[in-house]
Amino acid sequence: MSQVGDFVVDNRAGISRTLHRISAIRNRKGAIIGLTCRVGRAISGSANLLRDLVQDGASLLLIGPPGVGKTTIIREIARMLANDYKKRVMIVDTSNEIGGDGDIPHAGIGNARRMQVPNSEVQHKVLIEAVENHMPQVIVIDEIGTKLEAMAASTIAQRGIQLVATAHGVTIENLIMNPALEMLIGGIQSVTLGDEEASRRGVQKTVLERKGPSTFSCGVEIISKTELRVYRSLESTVDAILSGRFPNVEVRKMSSQEMKETIERELLISTSSDEENEIVVELTPGITNDTFTSEVPAKIGEECWEERVPLHLFVYGILEASVIQVIKQLKITDAAILLTDNISEADAILAMQSKLKKNSRIQAAAKSHCIPIHVTKTSSLDQITKAIRALMSDIKDGLKDSEPVDGMKSSEKLDALEEARIAIEQVVIPKGEPVELLPRPSNIMSLQMELIRKYQLEAEKIGTESDRRLRILPFHKGKTSDTDGAHGGFDDFVGADGNINGSFYSVDRLPLLPD
Fold it and tell me: Fewest C-beta atoms under 10 Å: which of 129, 198, 307, 318?
C-alpha cells in the first residue's frame, strides 16, 4: 500500500504517472487485506474506426461490458481531439482511469486537460463545473451510471458541447430498459394512440415512445477490441427499437494482423448474418466514410443489380416484421429494399386493400408523388411474398419505363378497372352523382363497361374519338347492390394472379376522385 496512491471512498488507488488501477479488498472491520491490480495502457490507433464521427463533431456514447476497452477508446478519442483537431478537451476523470493517478496526467491523453473527481457521488457537480469554469469544446466522461450524471450530461449537450462518454451495458436495449440511464437516449414514455393511428401502425393503442431528444447523436456498441457496431442516429435507433423494427447499424472491424480496416454495412435483422449477402468495404489510410465503394455488388437471389439505388418501401396496414421476414426468406439483400416511415421518400407502397380503401390521404400522397401502390387482400406471408416478388420484378424491368408492352397493357387495364370501382363505390352509389372516367382505348372501355354492369349501373361514351371516355350514370337497371356486394363483384372480375378475371393486384398512377 505504501507504493501506491491513497485509497478513497471508492476503494481505488493508482500508481503515479501510470494508468494502472489498484482496488482494495477490505475485511468486515474495514482493514485492507487484499489488492486487485488492473494493468492499463494507452493504445495508439484504438479509436481509428470512429475517426470520421469524431471529426464531424458527433457526440458519442460507447456501450460495452466491463473489460472490453471502453476507457482505452475514449482516452484515445480525447488525445485525437486535443492533438489532431486542436480542440479544448476537458476530461472528467472519476477514478483517474483515463488520465492516470497523481497530479500530472499520463501522456496518453495528449494536450487534453483533466478534472479529478474526489468522490463518485459528486461527479455530476464536477461535470457542470467543468462547463461553467473551463470553456471546453469537448467533455469526456467515463462510466455514467446514475440519474444525476445522466441529467448533467443532458444539460451539457443542450449547451452545444460535444460529449464522449461510456456506460455499462451490452446493447442499446439495455439503456432503454435502465431507468437511471434512459435519459441518455431521450427518455421513454407510454403513449395512448387513437384508433386510426393504432390501426395504421398495426399495434396496440398503448405504445412506448421516445420522450425527447437524445443526449448523444451516435451510439457505439463495443463487441471486442477490434469490432464495433455503430448507430449513426441514436434517436432513429431508439424509435425503431420501440416500434419493433430493426435499426440501421454499421459493423466496423479492424484486422490487427493485416493492419487494415474493413467495414461491413448491414441492416440488423437477426443475430446471425448471411455471409453471401454481406457488403464489405475496405478502407485505406486517409479514406473516410464519404468515399466508400462496394467490392461485392448487392444480390437479389441469383441476380446482381449493379448501380441500383435501394428501393425505399412504405408499408401501410401490414406489420413491418412480416415484410422483413419475407425479405429474408426471399434472400433479398438488405441494401435492395429499405423500409421507410416517410411516404415522400418511398419508391413504392405496400398496403392492405381494406386499410387503403379507408385512407384517402395515402392514395392522394401516392398520386402526388407518382408512387406505385401494391395491394394485398390479407397480411399473410404468402400474399406479402407475391407482392415483394412483384416489386423486385419492377426493379428488374426498370420499373414503369422499361416494362414490357404486355405488362404495360395489363397494368393499364387494372388502372382503368380500379378507377371505375373507386368512382362507383365512393361517388356514384353513395352520392348519386355521375362521374367521368379518364380517356381509355376502346378495348379497355369495354372492360370498364362490363365492370359497371356488374354493379347494375349504366354508362355512356362521351368526347371525341381521340378523347373518348365513359361517364358512369347513377341510374340502376335493377336492385342496387350494397357496397360490400359490389366490391365482391370487382374481386370476381380481377383474378387471383393479378390479371383481369383477387388476392393481389398492382395499382399504378391511381386516379383520385372526391371522397
Answer: 307
Q: Cell 412480416 appears where?
A: 322
Torsion angle defined by CA atoms of residues 488, 382, 395 and 272, in that order, rounded to the nearest 10 degrees = 150
Which residue spans within 268-310 are E strands per DSSP?
A: 279-283, 299-300, 303-304
In tens, the pLDDT along 181-195 reads: 998 998 898 888 888
SS3 category, 221: strand
Q: Does domain 405-507 have CATH number 3.30.1370.50?
A: yes
Evaluate whether the domain defined by 48-196+204-251 bears CATH number 3.30.450.20.
Answer: no
**% of the chain at pLDDT higher than 90:** 25
Q: Where are the domains of the chain?
A: 1-40, 48-196+204-251, 299-396, 405-507
Give residue-wise pLDDT tens across range 40-73.
888 888 899 999 999 999 999 999 988 888 999 9
Closest Cα partner for 197 from 285, 295, 105, 316? 316
Contact criterion met (CB below 8 Å) for 169 and 178: yes
Write out the H or E segment, with its range, that includes residue 337: strand 337-339
Whole-number Cα distances in Å, 86 to 57, 60, 81, 82, 127 = 13, 18, 6, 5, 21
Could you tell me the pLDDT band of residue 270, with boundaries at 50, 70 and 90?
very low
Question: 299-396: which CATH architecture?
Answer: 3-Layer(aba) Sandwich (3.40)
Question: What is the rounded distance in angstroms from the CA atom of residue 369 to the CA atom of residue 365?
Answer: 6
Fold agreement (48-196+204-251, 405-507): no
Please spell the DSSP secondary structure of 41-72, one letter per residue: ---TTTTGGGHHHHHTT--EEEEE-TTSSHHH
Q: How many CB atoms lie within 10 A of CB 377?
A: 15
Lowest mean pLDDT across 123-127, 226-230, 371-375? 371-375
Collect all residues with Cβ–Cβ distance below 8 Å to 403 and sequence separation of at least 6.
394, 397, 411
